Amino acid sequence: MKKKISLLAALLAVLPAAAGAAGDKPEAIRIGVAQVGTGGRPVSGWSFTSIVADNGSLEEEFKADGIPVKWTYFSGAGPAVNEALANGQLDFAFEGDLPSLVAKGGGLPTRLIVAVSRFDPVYLAVPADSTARSLEDLKGKRVAVFKGTNLQLAFANVLAARGLKESDFKLINMSTFDANAALLSKDIDAQVSGADLFPLVDRGVARIIHSTQGDPKAGRLTHFLVQEPFAKKYPQVVQRVVNRLVKDAAWFAVEANRARSYQIWTKSGLPLSAWKGDYDAFVSKERGSPLFDEFYRAHYKRLLKSGRDLKLIRKDFDIDAWIDPSYLEKAIKDLGLAGTWAPQPADFQPTLRKASVTSAASQR
Amino acid sequence: MNRPHLTLTLAALLAAASVRAAEPAAGAPATSAANAAATPSSLEQQLEALRKEIARLEGRLDNEAAPQSDVRGVQTDVENFKYQYQRDRETKSALSTRNLLIGGVIQARGAWADRSLSGITGGTPTVPGYLASTSINNPALLSNRNTTFDIPAAILSFNGLLFRDYEQARNLGFSLSAAAQPVAGSNNSNFNILDANVTYQLLPTIENDGPRLSVSAGQFLLPFGNESNISEELKPVINNAQFVPALGLGARQIGVVAKGELFTQFDFGYNYRQALLSFAAGVVSGTGPNRDDENGAKDVIGRVAVTFPAEYNSWLRELRVGASVYQGRANLNSGTAAAPVYAGLGRKNRYGVDVYYNHFPFGLTYEFVRADEEAWGSAAGRAVSLERQGHTFTAFYSVGEQFLRSIKTQAKYDDWWPKTFQPFLRWDRWDANLSAREDVSEIATLGLNVFFAETTKAQINVNRRVQQRAGARDATSHEVLAQIQFGF
Hints:
- The structure holds 2 protein chains of 2 kinds.
- Chain A is of the alpha/beta class.
- Chain A is built from 17 helices and 10 strands.
- In chain A, helix 5 crosses helix 14.
- By secondary structure, chain B is an alpha+beta fold.
- In chain B, a hairpin with an 8-residue loop joins strand 4 (145-163) and strand 5.
């Protein structure tokens, strides 16, 4: 009996040490992406996110440590990413503003560690032969929006700015590509979406009647976040991940790499016209800035407030406390990238390289 | 178009544009062109013309019309596709008048019992009641049998919409399913109708939020508690809790039932819907499936369940408490099954309370059911009251993402499905008569479900049964069931 007790005591003494040894590095780095390609393919076209995923820089970074990097793309977008985060299936995620705000407001322990994009416009498209020329023309009509994604909040803000309400329309919750198909079959009268609408315009089956390209404060935000417990446990791993991201963000910021970036994005299945239509008007290093500058923070605060007003976000919280810029700042310093991106003031107006879709749409 | 190709094309167009811009206008003297080329303003004009030409050519790159040969090629492909599609539809497709989803569930089972079965009573094989044996089709002669293979059920189902409301999704749906189950004492299977009902959504279902109200008419599972309200493909344990078959709660009933949800919340951040209050109320014949009513008294069923209003990220997510009531009347038979004699109506009431907590990766369920009924007492020569009750508790843990919707919707190139292992424990107690002593049966089950493809799971259950026996020692028996359940 004594022998058994000694053996048990020895085992109990060894177990925590063994657990500690196993905890030095994660078994895998699990990254969720709130987007899929056409046909549900596990590829996305999304700022420098796609560059990192495409060039395998993270896999290369952790190859010597034997830590695999697992990318998971979700057709359910942000809400599906949230579910996976809440159930401990992911360590990091590329997500949009509304789902992350909802999750944080509900107590999900996340920290934003890199900004990924800003000014992301929303477009409202109608079938090509529709008589609608403006939002007001669609009152009482069936408008599809992917609820729970940042499209929902951006569209609500567009409506509010024009004195309209969601209840003025028959809003239908549909995923991006389902709504594309429904727009073609005219099961819906309009779709609120992003770059995916341009190929429909290109094929002559849809028209964009509203765009927020010229209005940065109506745009959407996206970011890279980490689960707080993971960051506390593996801060060095998080830093190395951010370093790689920032390096690729700097590559993306060079205008000469725009065409190559578009090429990588087309692997998502959306053709070149989608990316030219959505991104040509913007300067890469402005829209793809990873900085948590005044514009980014102020816009996030605006989005939190409007989300709260619309009762989409249950609890208030401090945006500044949610953002953790320490990894980003260290990465910029270590990589010698200071000055690559100019901090944008709260009232920043992006430089437009060409006429925005808003003005192009009005000419049709 | 890739980058090198685009660059080359632009360069070629630029060169062509330069040559074109440098050429004198038709009919103009060569000398004047040469003179004009010599002046700075002329050079500026040429430069401007070149810029415009480049812009025009760049524009052509973006909006170039397809050549006729390409258009004809596409036309040919479309015609070929139309022909092939029409031909396949006529000769190789199952057609239906309405929207239809065909499915099925088949169970293939192997069983082992720790006591051999060889009892024969009056020429009929009998399995002692104290044995944990769930074989349902024993041959006429049994000899020293510990193991057997079964096909307990093969179910074919048809579901679809009879009317689809595109505006508000107040749809009219139907459900038809039938199960082939072995018939005791023969090599045949009975093919019996399970579900046969239509359901109309009285409130819009186009959105995930908002209240719900539906009415179903036909033959359906009773909305009573947890155990008896789960269809075959979703049951975590191979055998039902003992109270389900004993009280007939797992049998389909014919009638009308309304189901609804009130005070709903839909968290778009997680695509998580919860209804603070869900309810069901209905009227059924009470005689089970595929059978007419036996008396004028209708049986009524009612259920109310409250789901704790919690954030998705809260540990209180999916905590539900429910209460169910079934009140009915059954004909009392003072004769025999072969020569029945009507002896009035007897109570057939069931009351239940259930708790359901499913918080990935673990979950707990508990259900208590009490029956208050009357049966004909031959000895007393009158109807006698009978009270019966059961408790069932289940705890499970999932390793894998089978029950996470998000993971199942992730983008994949192949036929991927999250492999999941779900060990569970169940304790099931059934007291067939509260007034009688020593008639309690307890079954403890240790089980494992392995989900290895989208509609297929392997199950293994180890059952330990302790049966009280009046005036004798409790009988303990063991059984191992291994089952593959696959669907399509």
